Amino acid sequence: MAIIKTPEIAEVFRSYPPRMRQKLLRLRELVLDAAAESECIGLEETLKWGEPSYVCKGGSAVRLGWKEKTPHQYMMYFNCQTKLVDTFKELYRDKFKFEGNRAIVFDKNTEISTDALKHCISSKLPSQEALAYAWQLSKSQNQGIYLMRIVLRIVDLIKWKPR
Q1: Would you say residue 142 lies in a domain?
Q2: Which residues, including other chains, have CB under 8 Å from residue 42's CB and lie 6 or more apart?
Q3: Chain mean position to CA 105
Q4: Across-strand partners of 105?
Q5: Which value, to the nearest 10 degrees, does the dihedral of the CA atoms of residues 135, 151, 63, 109 take?
Q6: What is the pTM of this model?
Q7: What is the pLDDT of residues 24-43, one digit of tens each?
Q8: pLDDT tens profile 43-55
Q9: CATH code where residue 91 lies
Q10: pLDDT of residue 128 exceeding 80
């Protein structure tokens, strides 16, 4: 497990209940692994909205969280302005639970499919240029969400490197 270098981030992890801390540190480890295995340049670990957040240069953030109002769950948040969570729903409907278009939700007693989750993470960490291009293409071709989903799947498959 990589050491948390920023005291404020370490304090946030210490503030979680012990079982949730362990689960969230595991998610952190998966984010760091996915970043190391992908095209991620300059992974930055910061706090956004008081929660641990991870972003590569040119990418957008993946954020980890736990809320007192749902003490048995913890989450991995993605930018809700993208269609990635919709794509994840199609690809991994049987592996994960989702919250709208912004998060994958984990139950404290559920085993995580690490390969599928690392695929989701690595789809988010690299630059969003391919996603912006896919969105523009879907709008200009008047094909709507179906073309967007096809292009996103192609982008995901190109990035996905099975072991």
Answers
A1: no
A2: 56, 57
A3: 11
A4: 75, 97
A5: 140
A6: 0.74
A7: 999 999 998 888 877 677 88
A8: 889 999 999 999 8
A9: 3.90.1150.200
A10: no
